[in-house]
């Protein structure tokens, strides 16, 4: 719906007396015929609120309905008109992108400028600025006499719609629809200002898809559930608007042997019945692809092509980590198994440029900075080898597998205690250290006079009760014969420092350089 429709409703809601069509046309500076056509669309907005636009010859146009229903409609109109005025630069460009992607006919700059309360020159500038993002997704914004339209394959259009809906600030409202399905506060609200779909439209598709796709959604995280449901919603509205997906023979052949065909068909059969539309075989295969790119399915004895790719990719990534970090990751079976399970759906995403959100990406980049950067270097090399694009979101997930492998193989500091005390005190000291300092394990204790007979390079750390001892190349910490609180705090601080160093091959490499 364009802004003028809401302006008509605003005029009618604010008037206690009927307005003639000529009066409305004069206020909005358009023709009588335009208003008559707009009133038909305005009625579509009013119907869910049980409000009727009454047109009487000789009297004029007015709204009929109880006061509460009209107040609800008024809140929607105010929200919608307010949204047109409050767009930031980024939000305005998202609005334009979604409007262009969903338009069935060229979008006129003058109309867009009215909707967004900005100049036609600004609209032209905004379109130039969003064109590179479209080109990245293999689409083009074409300028013609009638306005602007998007040219490209349907699959890329759907991917780009998903991308911009995901960027829109309204995306969080979808979470509310999923978490609170019985609440109706968003039912009549247009979730995305540039699209003519209300909360109830999203909710209906979501509920049908989840009810008939229990096998698909039962093991999905909330974030991935939301993303897959949005994909399904986009597919539904595109089919309703007469757009068909086209897939290459290679694409279809790669889908052979993948799971969830029957689940995809069951979901679409239910949606087809609800909306009176038809999903052809290619649509089912397309949904099947997205389901498989989202779910971590059990690995099969008879490998499909993506499982084969995933196995090769997993092996190469682990070898790359091993080479760069000088660490035997290839001996870690759990790393290989977990990474392979992750990479199987990831390879579908890589091959078909299906984006995925990593909600922890910024945390990963901050908390595991070195791990992320090493993985990014490896993925840059592998993307060339496998001829795929690997986004930072994907790299973040892979970096977590590396971080987990490093954590899993951490060991405490192999520590030697050098003491000038007797046996009883030494045993008490060893017990307290091993109990109160988790980073240190004292595996041997020698008298200070016996140090020369010990192979010191077997140890990560030496603790000594006498400050007369000097040992080169091995970290040495002097402690009291009976640990006090300050000794424990100091040992934990020092122990953690060396513990991090011996268990982080990245730090080892940095120190060696």
UniProtKB/TrEMBL annotation:
Residues 192-301, 305-412 form the PRD domain. PROSITE patterns: PRD_2. The keyword Transcription applies. GO terms for biological process: regulation of DNA-templated transcription. Signal peptide: none annotated. Keywords: Activator, Repeat, Transcription, Transcription regulation. InterPro entries: BglG_antiterminators (IPR050661), HTH_11 (IPR013196), Mga_HTH (IPR007737), PRD (IPR011608), PRD_sf (IPR036634), WH-like_DNA-bd_sf (IPR036388), WH_DNA-bd_sf (IPR036390). The keyword Transcription applies. PANTHER family: CRYPTIC BETA-GLUCOSIDE BGL OPERON ANTITERMINATOR, TRANSCRIPTIONAL REGULATOR MTLR. This is BglG family transcription antiterminator. The lineage of its organism: Bacteria, Bacillati, Bacillota, Erysipelotrichia, Erysipelotrichales.
């Amino acid at each position: 719906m364009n802004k003028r429709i809401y302006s008509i409703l605003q005029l009618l809601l604010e008037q206690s007396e009927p307005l003639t069509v000529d009066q409305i046309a004069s206020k909005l500076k358009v023709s009588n015929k335009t208003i008559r056509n707009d009133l038909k669309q305005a009625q579509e907005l009013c119907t869910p609120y049980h409000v009727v636009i009454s047109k009487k010859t000789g009297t004029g146009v007015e709204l009929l309905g109880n006061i509460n229903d009209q107040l609800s409609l008024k809140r929607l109109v105010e929200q919608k008109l307010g949204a047109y005025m409050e767009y930031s630069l980024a939000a305005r460009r998202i609005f334009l992108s979604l409007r262009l992607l969903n338009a069935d006919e060229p979008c006129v700059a003058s109309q867009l400028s009215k909707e967004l309360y900005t100049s036609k020159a600004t609209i032209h500038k905004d379109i130039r600025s969003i064109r590179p993002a479209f080109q990245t997704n293999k689409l083009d914004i074409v300028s013609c006499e009638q306005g602007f339209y998007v040219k490209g394959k349907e699959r890329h259009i759907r991917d780009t719609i998903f991308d911009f809906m995901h960027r829109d600030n309204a995306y969080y409202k979808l979470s509310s629809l999923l978490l609170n399905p019985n609440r109706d506060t968003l039912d009549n609200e247009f979730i995305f200002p540039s699209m003519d779909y209300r909360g109830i439209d999203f909710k209906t598709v979501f509920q049908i898809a989840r009810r008939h796709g229990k096998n698909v959604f039962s093991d999905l995280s909330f974030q991935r559930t939301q993303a897959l449901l949005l994909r399904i919603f986009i597919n539904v509205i595109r089919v309703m608007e007469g757009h068909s997906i086209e897939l290459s023979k290679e694409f279809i052949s790669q889908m052979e042997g993948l799971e969830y065909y029957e689940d995809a068909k069951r979901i679409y059969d239910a949606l087809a019945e609800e909306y009176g539309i038809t999903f052809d075989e290619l649509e089912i295969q397309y949904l099947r692809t997205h389901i498989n790119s989202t779910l971590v399915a059990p690995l099969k004895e008879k490998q499909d092509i993506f499982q084969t790719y995933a196995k090769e990719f997993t092996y190469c990534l682990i070898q790359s980590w091993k080479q760069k970090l000088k660490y035997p990751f290839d001996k870690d079976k759990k790393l290989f198994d977990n990474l392979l399970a992750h990479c199987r759906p990831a390879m579908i995403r890589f091959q078909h440029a299906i984006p995925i959100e990593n909600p922890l990406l910024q945390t990963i980049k901050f908390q595991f900075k070195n791990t992320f950067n090493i993985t990014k270097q490896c993925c840059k090399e592998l993307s060339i080898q496998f001829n795929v694009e690997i986004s930072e979101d994907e790299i973040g997930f892979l970096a977590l597998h590396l971080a987990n492998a490093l954590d899993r193989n951490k060991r405490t500091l192999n520590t030697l205690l050098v003491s000038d005390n007797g046996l009883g005190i030494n045993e008490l000291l060893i017990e307290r250290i091993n109990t109160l300092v988790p980073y240190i394990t004292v595996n041997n204790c020698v008298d200070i006079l016996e140090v020369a007979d010990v192979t010191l390079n077997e140890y990560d750390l030496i603790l000594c009760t006498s400050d007369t001892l000097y040992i080169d190349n091995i970290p040495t910490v002097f402690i009291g014969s009976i640990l006090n609180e300050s000794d424990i705090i100091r040992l934990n601080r020092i122990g953690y420092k060396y513990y991090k160093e011996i268990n982080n091959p990245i730090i080892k490499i940095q120190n060696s350089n």
